[in-house]
Specification:
- The structure is a homodimer of 356-residue chains.
- Chain A is 41% helix and 19% strand.
- With 356 residues, chain A is an alpha/beta fold.
- Chain A folds into 2 domains: 125 residues, Arc Repressor Mutant, subunit A (Orthogonal Bundle), CATH 1.10.10; 219 residues, Dna Topoisomerase Vi A Subunit, Chain: A, domain 2, CATH 3.40.1360.
- In chain A, the strands form 6 sheets. In chain A, strands 10-7-13-12-14-15 form a 6-stranded mixed sheet, sandwiched between helices. A 3-stranded antiparallel sheet of chain A has the order 9-8-11, with no helix packed on it.
- The first copy, chain A, is globular.
- The N and C termini of chain A lie far apart (47 Å).
- The interface between A and B is large, with 55 and 55 residues.
């Protein structure tokens, strides 16, 4: 069993043996205890902790459920299995008093275990159903497949035009980088634009690794981008639609989220750059636009208060968008033809932010 | 240029040359002209046609837009490009009077061209943004990649655990089957269940080709299943959640949809089998359930009127579900552990429907 998980069990066991009331202790997940760390540029936990004593029925039940989960993880480890969070919720039907009331409860407890152990839930063999990013470009990696063998894959030459799909777990025990020959990672929001850049062979022409993040990126997608940046020192550039929700996609890749503050270090990539679509691009390239909805406007105002957007660049772009009252999609660049994005827009913008 | 597209242009040209008012003629897309063909088990068009004469401003504009599209397709053919439907809508910004009012209009006209030519829009180089199915199993195919080279891929040995992702176009000019060694195709609704069967190596143990259809399947997914069944004679089995929306997923794979009645022959697979989750399974396996919502109940009642469900099996299952007032997910089978679905449920059910 994983040492960190074992130490939780050991502590409870020892307390009971000594006749003490068993407890678990973890960092407080209260919002007051989650702060934006300006130095590292990500959300982090403070030092407040909470203790849950088995002297109350609810806490006792919650400790029991946690022990059931740890036992389940141990069982999966022996059988080389993994489980979706949903499957674990259903499996708890057989856990008597340990049965979860709802998947929200079991998901929350999985996060508690992450906070306590600093292990990713994926390392604990628990995973969401989200599908991972598609990747195309000259990166060779090896994946530990379900048969327990390392399989080497070049993400440009060994795949079809839909690219290589990353698995739910991209930790080194599952994915290792073998070699690469790219100058930057381009994380792309929409499938239409990803396919456009693939068809236009932007990965080859601009020596880039194209990553289709499929809207709000999954944890494994963010983790892959983090590893590419941290281990291989490849700069990361994010390319999204031009609207408040897409700005949040950038923020979540660069600075992480409150919900995952305990694992910001391994999920966020604070030196990511944003290439567009910006509000200034809408004006500069006279892009076809849609009117901002009331929800869009509300989201932009919320972003003005969000510490992740507290820079002159972002404040300027958000205010420009509010003044314009307009948003635009990545694919709006097609106004100037199918090659405009790869021949003109991206080279111009990437030069401006110093990537090429 | 494609012959079928050229003949549309030729006809308009000849009419104008003869001093006649140019027109286009296509099968009526009125619902009255779309009938469920009990013999072939799919939706089909009747023989009513409509003519659009350029003597009315609206029809003249619509003919102009159609000519712009055909010209755009021809251009893409020469440049070896494709375009998303969204990109074409934006590109029409530069078409003067040919500019589309909305993407609904350009999408509709693309369908008109499909009805007139019996070409798929994918063959006309126009595609949606939907991502295609993931496939795992012992099927070797070759894909014509963006460089114009055939790339051979075995969907079990040459891919990671996330499988091979099919491209937007699976016509023989893009995808050809090389060899296979599987007894049936299992089309799976949810990612969680697909991953479960992959991890449990159901493809190897039961000689099956696992296809993750990702909810309501895209056209390319349905077309791939159709080709596997028609060309390679592999039986198709559909495995979904047990609720009215999942029943519709089965119906759309097996019998097609009204919207795509003009291409039922190449999208639908009428001899597909449904393995579950059925309402009877909920009772038989005592599965964890959720209560049917008002919308669920409404959908089930609509299905009782739908010709695609006009069989004793479906009428029985729909009525059982209404009587139970319950629905269940595929993953609810995890109540009995992670191996129950592959060791017990699927073998039992597949035997009953005569697949194994």
């Amino acid at each position: 069993m994983n040492e960190k998980l074992k130490s939780i069990v050991d502590e409870i066991y020892n307390e009971m043996k000594k006749g003490q009331i068993p407890k678990v202790e973890l960092k407080s997940r209260n919002k007051d205890n989650i702060v934006f760390d300006n130095l590292s540029g990500v959300w982090k936990y403070g030092n407040n902790t909470v203790k849950r004593y088995a002297s109350k029925t609810n806490s006792a039940k919650s400790i029991l459920k946690m022990l059931y989960i740890i036992d389940f993880i141990d069982e999966m480890e022996q059988d080389l299995k993994t489980s979706t969070l949903r499957e674990m919720y259903y499996i708890s039907e057989g856990w008597g008093l340990g049965k979860f009331e709802s998947q929200d409860e079991s998901d929350m407890m999985t996060e508690d275990l992450e906070v306590m152990t600093t292990l990713l839930r994926e390392e604990m063999r628990l995973r969401p159903e989200e599908s991972g990013a598609s990747v195309i470009g000259n990166l060779t990696l090896k994946e530990m497949n379900r048969k327990g063998e390392w399989k080497e894959i070049n993400c440009r030459d060994d795949v079809g035009d839909a690219g290589y799909t990353i698995p739910y777990n991209v930790e080194p025990e599952k994915i290792q980088f073998v070699s690469e020959d790219v100058d930057f990672v381009l994380a792309i929001e929409t499938g239409g634009m990803f396919d456009r850049l693939v068809e236009n062979r932007f990965d080859e022409k601009m020596r880039s690794l194209l990553v289709h993040i499929k809207g709000q990126p999954s944890r494994s997608t963010k983790r892959l981008i983090n590893r590419l940046n941290k281990e291989l020192h490849i700069p990361v550039v994010v390319f999204t639609d031009g609207d408040p929700w897409s700005f949040r996609i950038f923020a979540s890749i660069a600075y992480g989220a409150i919900k995952t503050a305990h694992i910001s270090d391994i999920l966020a990539t604070p030196n990511s750059e944003f290439v567009g679509i910006t509000a200034s691009d809408i004006v500069r390239y006279e892009l076809p636009t849609d009117k901002l909805s009331d929800k869009d406007i509300e989201a932009l105002h919320a972003e003005l208060e969000d510490p992740r957007f507290n820079t002159p660049f972002w404040k300027g772009e958000i205010e420009t968008m509010l003044n314009l009252g307009k948003k635009a999609e990545q694919q709006a660049l097609a106004k100037y033809g199918l090659n405009f994005v790869t021949d003109t827009y991206l080279p111009e913008k990437l030069k401006e932010i110093g990537i090429i």
